[in-house]
Write a structure and sequence with these properties.
Layout (H helix, E strand, L loop, with lengths): L1 E6 L10 H10 L2 E6 L7 H11 L2 E4 L17 H12 L3 E8 L7 H17 L4 E6 L2 H10 L5 E4 L5 H9 L2 E5 L9 H9 L5 E3 L25 H12 L3 H17 L7
Parallel strand pairs: 1-2, 2-3, 3-4, 4-5, 5-6, 6-7, 7-8
Bound molecules: zinc ion.
The site of zinc ion has 5 residues, from loops.
């Protein structure tokens, strides 16, 4: 049994066959999909994935929509988000964070949106799903300032030392398609070395296709139905049986989202 801890099932890429994709994922042992929007225009579609497919849902504004070439969020959207969270009671806030990789990024604007969304997570006592690209230390600085309950550092790509800092703040680190590539040495080393209780798996579908869909640069559509196959490859990197890895990573997601404690044996 698997949990996809980070997915964008509401994306238009799935408009043609969303029902089939979800049925295939469930049939292959993906019990839960955590679905997250990019900005407020996606909130309705995300809400539908909860009603139709039992997705665990978050609401949030992704840093790529805040600044840079694809900017389309305005500061008033923070009030819209707070409203949605009040009404819909999502399980988490996300996808939020900082992306200093995009050209012409507006760092102060991204930091303003990030900080305001952390405050919403804090006020509602919700975990967060973080997008962290070329911004590890800045994200950590904000997390120390606005204390949230923890969450997931999605597609984690920092150093071992930065991983420790996220873990100390109550975060699990998300691993997915990238770690299926043998050339991803640093990420595979992290996946091997960080405490198992802080490892979760994800697809980020339709993005971050795994190695069995083509080269790293391919634009192949990733999908939650591939999670068991991705997970099996990551289990091998970790040196665990597929069953043990699936059980541990699923328990980690449940602990973060629902404060569920592992079974005492
Ligand atoms: Zn994402």
């Amino acid at each position: 049994m698997w949990i996809d801890s980070h997915c964008h099932l509401d994306s238009p890429e799935f408009d043609v066959d969303r029902d089939v994709v979800v049925a295939a994922a469930h049939a292959d042992g993906v019990t839960t999909i955590v679905n997250l929007p990019g900005h407020v225009d996606h909130f309705d579609a995300v809400k539908r994935t909860r009603a139709q497919y039992g997705c665990v849902t978050g609401y949030g504004i992704h840093p790529m929509w805040v600044a840079g070439p694809s900017a389309r969020s305005k500061r008033d959207d923070i009030a819209v988000l707070r409203d949605w969270v009040t009404r819909e009671r999502p399980e988490l806030i996300g996808e939020i964070g900082l992306d200093f990789f995009v050209p012409n990024f507006d760092q102060p604007e991204q930091e303003w949106f990030f900080s305001e969304q952390l405050k919403i997570a804090r006020d509602f006592d919700l975990p967060v799903s973080l997008h962290v690209r070329r911004s590890q230390d800045h994200v950590l600085k904000h997390l120390r300032r606005v204390k949230v309950r923890g969450g997931f550092a999605h597609a984690f790509n920092g150093s071992a030392q930065q991983a420790d800092e996220f873990i100390k703040l109550g975060f699990c680190l998300g691993f997915g398609g990238t770690a299926t590539f043998p050339a991803a040495l640093r990420i595979r080393a992290l996946l091997r070395d960080v405490p198992l209780k802080n490892v979760v798996v994800e697809t980020d579908a339709p993005d971050i296709p795994p190695s069995f869909l083509g080269p790293m640069s391919s634009r192949a559509r990733n999908s939650p139905e591939y999670l068991p196959r991705i997970g099996a490859m990551l289990a091998e990197v970790r040196g665990l049986s597929v069953e043990a890895f699936a059980a541990a990573t699923s328990a980690n997601v449940r602990r973060v989202l629902f404060r569920e404690l592992p079974d005492v044996r």
